[in-house]
Amino acid sequence: MPRSYIVTCKDGATDAEVEAAKQAARDQGGKIGHEYTLIKGFQVTFDDGIVHTLESHDHVKHVEEDSVVHTQ
Questions:
Q1: Which of 16, 36, 63, 67 sits between 20 and 30 A of 10, alpha carbons compared?
Q2: One biological process GO term for this chain (predicted)?
Q3: 72 lies in a domain?
Q4: Which residues, other chains included, contact 8 with Cβ-Cβ below 8 Å and sequence gap of 6+?
């Protein structure tokens, strides 16, 4: 089953650097979904079992598995 991740780029990343991070995700078999405008980041889906190395990309600040968020 595919897994969805939220990728946050570094605060000072330019549009070209964000695009480079998205291309790195595509190169590793990822499918870009939502592209965020309030933060420099995007959602990407990888097939289960695919190992990705986005966290070590020069322009990526954080990668976390997408999940449901609840409020109280």
A1: 67
A2: vacuole fusion, non-autophagic
A3: no
A4: 39, 40, 41, 60, 61, 62, 63
Amino acid of residue 9 = C
DSSP-H helix ranges across the chain? 15-27
Quote the longest CA-to-CA distance of the chain: 39
**Residues in the chain with pLDDT values less than 50:** none
Phi then psi for residue 32, to 5 deg, are -75, 130
Look up the pTM and report it. 0.87
The span from the CA of 25 to the CA of 47, in Å, is: 12
The CATH number linked to 30 is 3.30.70.80
